[in-house]
Amino acid sequence: MGKLLQVSAAAIAAYGVYQVVKLVSMLVHDEFFSPLRNLPGPPNENWTRGNAVKGSSVEVCASFEKWVKEYGPTLQYRISYGGRRLYTTDTKALKHILMTTNVYQKPEDTRKLISRVHGDGLINTEGEKHKQQLRDKWSAEIAKHNGDARVDAFSWINRATIDVIGLAGFNYNFDALGEASEMNELRAAFGVLMSAFQTSPVSRLDPITYLRSFGFLKTDKDKKIDQARATMVRISRELVENSKRMANEKEASNRDLLGVLVKSNMSTDIPDHLRMSDEDVLAQISTFLIAGNAKCSTTGSWALYALTQDKAIQSRLREELFTLDTESPTMEQLNTLPYLDMVVRETLRLYCPVPSTIRMAIKDDVLPLGQPITDTNGKVHDSIQIHKGQKLAIPILAINRDTSIWGEDAGIYRPERWEHIPEVAASVPGVWGNMLSFIGGPRACIGYRFSIVELKAFLFVFVRAFEFDLAVPAKDIIVTPVMQRPLLATNPAAGSQLPLLIRHVVQS
Hints:
The chain is of the alpha+beta class. The chain is 48% helix and 12% strand. The protein contains 17 helices and 12 strands. The strands form 4 sheets. Strands 1-2-8-5-3 form a 5-stranded mixed β-sheet, sandwiched between helices. The chain has a 3-stranded antiparallel β-sheet with strand order 4-12-9. A two-stranded antiparallel ribbon has the order 6-7. The longest helix has 32 residues, at 278-309.
């Protein structure tokens, strides 16, 4: 025990020395050598906090919008302890950052958080019966109350999404909508891992957080996350082995995403250097499960929220959905509905699940600008020197709400804007829909088509079946800071939720 304490003390001391040297080096660089030092930007309000903005993602975005109006589309702002960060809404610069993946990558602290939850990983409309199962459960709530029923839409949609992704992705039944009093162990592990995404990345100058990230110190929450990760790896390994068995037996039912991946990976036509290891395949399970659930459940909830705020939109959408004479449309049929497509696009534009992300230059680079800037010395620049180690903000929500792209009503939910897409929107370097909700470039979200189809199928089932109203005042709905999830201002301790009043649609 004494030796362990000595090792821990030595680790803490070494870390302290390392951070002091690193801090001094960073301060000298940022004050005297950083190419960003002459860029326009807000004054440093606090040396410890920098220009940190507290509040929801929407409030943070509004602060950056104010800075862009005052200092231009490309600016610097200060982070904790004197650091500088580049912020740009210049679409040419963003395209360069997102496309040049050999230079701009996720920072180490972000990769640690993702790897800890996901592992090191990177369709069709399966699960229709689960949407109908959820519809039936909401119908039962209405019958129980003999009229309008109050439901937590976020919780129910989250559970349905887990079931859909489990079956479509891995042929695994979470039974999240089932009646069982206890959830199965993979679903329980999934819930623990999802909670990790409401945690801020590792602070470079917080020794306790830093040591925790490397496993020197562990809280009870850290131990629960490690246990949940171990459970997910164990069950994922069983799923991979089962998929291999089915592939060897050439069973026709092996059509889930994991089954297709395993079967393709076992093909003799694939060169060895392109073949994925079992560890790579394992990582894909948690990647699709966690990232897919976060996007589908969050955007589904915000779509219903938006429909409660404008009944005309809700009615127009419902009218179009009833033009299809089926309760189980194909993907091709869903894609023939133009207003449904507009509603999905507007939801993903205004309520993208992840409001921003970060990239870090792993070597020196020159960042081209589409809009030249004038520095504090009056010099005009059409590019910026980027030094190795420099972090750059990717403002997803800010681009999606940029008034110079979408007009002065960019902050308003208006699906009709997609009837005439602004020409300038073509410059947004997103993988889909003239927006950054799924990022862009080689590292864009690989499951974006699944998310889009799922959202369309979800809205088709529920908007045809129910009318929606918000069960609380609109001002009570706020947004969580890390991911854009609905939260009650009057009861934040209860976690993410979206209380709705629902009733059956009565067709005339």
